[in-house]
């Protein structure tokens, strides 16, 4: 799920848009003074706090003042000083930050069950129907059944293969639009964003909504809200600020829009199903979207081990596919292209491979992809340097436990900083260099969750169920883009295109758009 996004499933960027507002800072300072004594009593005793390395915390806000908008970078700096496990207070919430592969393995494998729940999030609670989704759901029977449905029915290898034609059609449409733009520059970032949104729309809802401005705004607002910082969750005594700042009203409005939209989608599908049955037609002969699958699960609820997939859970799951799927895939493709364009020799090698394997054929089959080792290495290298969810989705300790000899109280939040781990010189040669060849070695690591120095999709019970779908989409789209065009950076855009700065947002996407020229490529014999 999409995105450097803390609350999002994907959103680990807790930050600070609201907190940094002047008014709130003043309020905090006054309250700090007024309640200093009382607050001291609320913090754990010095003895408990000393158990883990921890930067000094302030009353009320804890360590929030030490965190910037790029949470993974703030955690990175703190881990340089305090080590691979450290304790922070996010307001009144204790949180540990993990920055080594060994400790990540402890959390996601050895003690996976202990760390299998998600912390509460008031915004996700509202937007995802009391956390009836997967990514925000607390560990338990509901989450287990929802994840099973997702893994077995929505994102199974067979289902993902059935989406191939959708991915192919949408990518071909993208190529036509790019061709039409030559020789003018184009905003490739924007085009890829629309592409991934269209693919997810068709796969999840059965049709595209990209032409609908209201739909785009609704998704954008939802992801902004999921990336925001509700006082209620971290400094409960300041929860009134959420009302004053308009946050509560925005959440309510967005929920009502999303709910109305999903109601209409479900209605449309239900009517179509009835028409198919009345007309004696076989329902969805060629392609079944997520809504169809979930509605049939809902109908067959007796066969799903007694689990009742109610309408709220269906809506939460459908909506989550957007939250988790759109940005992550878009961001990954954007970073890969940015790195390729910045490293022309890598670009040439990748293009040479794609053109050799595919020839003039536009069809990117599974067999063809299996011959593109270099392209796969490029994708891994981009995910290593730019993991879209850099601190994973936070977990929470379900009971008191021990990590690295430190006592971890029940309810402690856990962030795993994969951004730091996947550039740690202890595991990676030349970690700051974009060097896909590192993944061509016979003993190279994979991102499937078994190598804890490289887990952009997480690992264990809470790992990402969208890994096959993402990999297929990224590989197909990239192969087509490298096959069909030679890429040029207009002089006036050079600085922005090659600038690898990150933007603040739900996920760590590139700060500056890819404004490029795409020269259509013709195979020598076809000239
Ligand atoms: C490049 C693409 C993607 C990346 C890098 C990514 C990454 C992640 C990460 C890091 C997590 C949290 C793992 C953990 O806590 O250990 C996650 C969870 C999740 N992802 Fe993805 N994701 C991607 C694409 C997708 C797609 C396409 C979908 C669905 C269409 C999806 C659905 C989910 C869901 C439902 C969860 C929650 C799993 C749970 O809590 O049990 N993701 N993803």
CATH class: Mainly Alpha
Structural class: alpha+beta
Number of helices: 21
> Could you estimate the helical fraction of the residues in percent?
40-55%
Task: Explain what this protein looks like in three dimensions.
The chain has 527 residues and is an alpha+beta fold. It has one domain (12-520): Cytochrome p450 (Orthogonal Bundle). 50% of the residues lie in helices and 7% in strands. The chain has helices spanning 22-42, 46-49, 71-82, 101-110, 122-127, 141-154, 157-162, 164-181, 188-205, 213-226, 231-234, 240-244, 247-278, 290-299, 311-342, 344-358, 366-370, 373-385, 418-421, 467-484, 494-498, and strands at residues 85-90, 93-98, 186-187, 395-396, 401-403, 406-408, 413-416, 485-488, 515-520. The chain has a four-stranded mixed beta sheet with strand order 1-2-7-4, covered by helices on one side. A three-stranded antiparallel beta sheet has the order 3-9-8. Strands 5-6 form a two-stranded antiparallel sheet. A hairpin with a 2-residue loop joins β1 (85-90) and β2. The longest helix has 32 residues, at 247-278. It is globular. The two termini are 43 Å apart. Mean pLDDT is 87; it is low at 1-26 and 32-47. The structure holds protoporphyrin IX containing FE. Residues 1, 9, 134-135, 147, 150, 320-321, 324-325, 328-329, 332, 388-389, 392-393, 456-459, 462-466, 469-470 line the site of protoporphyrin IX containing FE.
Task: Indicate the topology.
Layout (H helix, E strand, L loop, with lengths): L21 H21 L3 H4 L21 H12 L2 E6 L2 E6 L2 H10 L11 H6 L13 H14 L2 H6 L1 H18 L4 E2 H18 L7 H14 L4 H4 L5 H5 L2 H32 L11 H10 L11 H32 L1 H15 L7 H5 L2 H13 L9 E2 L4 E3 L2 E3 L4 E4 L1 H4 L45 H18 E4 L5 H5 L16 E6 L7
Parallel strand pairs: 2-7
Antiparallel strand pairs: 1-2, 3-9, 4-7, 5-6, 8-9
Helix pairs in contact: 8-9, 8-20, 9-15, 10-13, 15-18, 15-20, 16-20
This protein binds protoporphyrin IX containing FE (HEM).
């Amino acid at each position: 799920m999409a995105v450097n996004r803390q609350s999002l499933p994907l959103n680990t960027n807790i930050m600070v848009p609201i907190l940094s507002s002047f008014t709130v800072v003043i309020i905090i300072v006054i309250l700090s003074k007024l309640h200093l004594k009382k607050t001291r009593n609320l913090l754990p005793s010095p003895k408990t706090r000393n158990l883990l390395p921890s930067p000094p915390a302030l009353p009320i806000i804890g360590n929030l003042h030490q965190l910037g908008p790029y949470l993974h970078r703030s955690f990175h700096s703190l881990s340089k000083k305090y080590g691979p496990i450290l304790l922070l207070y996010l307001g009144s919430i204790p949180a540990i930050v993990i920055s080594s592969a060994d400790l990540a393995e402890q959390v996601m494998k050895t003690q996976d069950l202990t760390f299998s729940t998600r912390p509460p999030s008031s915004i996700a609670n509202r937007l995802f129907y009391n956390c009836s989704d997967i990514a925000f759901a607390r560990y338990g029977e509901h989450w287990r059944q929802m994840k099973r449905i997702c893994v077995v029915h929505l994102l199974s290898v067979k289902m993902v293969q059935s989406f191939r034609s959708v991915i192919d059609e949408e990518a071909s449409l993208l190529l036509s639009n790019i061709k039409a733009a030559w020789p003018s520059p184009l905003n490739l970032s924007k085009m890829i964003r629309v592409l991934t949104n269209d693919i997810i729309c068709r796969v999840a809802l059965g049709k595209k909504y990209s032409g609908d401005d209201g739909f785009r705004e609704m998704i954008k607002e939802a992801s902004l809200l999921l990336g925001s910082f509700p006082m209620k969750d971290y400094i409960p005594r300041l929860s009134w600020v959420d009302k004053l700042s308009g946050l509560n009203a925005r959440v309510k409005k967005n929920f009502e829009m999303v709910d109305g939209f999903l109601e209409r989608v479900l209605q449309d599908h239900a009517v179509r199903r009835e028409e198919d049955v009345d007309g004696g037609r076989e329902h969805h002969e060629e392609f079944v979207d997520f809504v169809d699958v979930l509605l049939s699960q809902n109908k067959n609820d007796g066969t799903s081990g007694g689990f009742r997939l109610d309408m709220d859970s269906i809506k939460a799951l459908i909506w989550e596919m957007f939250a988790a799927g759109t940005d992550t895939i878009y961001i990954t493709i954007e970073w890969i292209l940015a790195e390729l364009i910045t490293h022309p020799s890598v670009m040439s090698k990748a293009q040479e491979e794609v053109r050799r394997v595919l020839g003039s054929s536009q069809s990117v089959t599974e067999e063809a992809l299996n011959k593109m080792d270099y392209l796969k290495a490029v994708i891994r290298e981009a995910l290593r340097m730019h993991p879209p969810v850099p601190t994973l989705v936070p977990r929470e300790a379900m009971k008191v436990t021990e990590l690295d000899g430190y006592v971890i109280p029940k309810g402690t939040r856990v962030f795993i900083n994969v951004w730091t781990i996947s550039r740690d010189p202890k595991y990676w040669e030349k970690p700051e260099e974009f060097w896909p060849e590192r993944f061509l070695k016979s003993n190279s690591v994979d991102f499937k969750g078994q190598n804890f120095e490289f887990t952009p999709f997480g690992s264990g019970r809470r790992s990402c169920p969208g890994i096959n779908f993402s990999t297929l989409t990224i590989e197909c789209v990239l192969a087509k883009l490298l096959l069909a065009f030679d890429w040029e950076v207009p002089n006036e855009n050079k600085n922005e295109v090659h600038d690898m700065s990150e933007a603040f947002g739900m996920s760590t996407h590139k700060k500056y758009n890819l404004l490029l020229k795409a020269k259509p490529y013709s195979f020598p014999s076809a000239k």
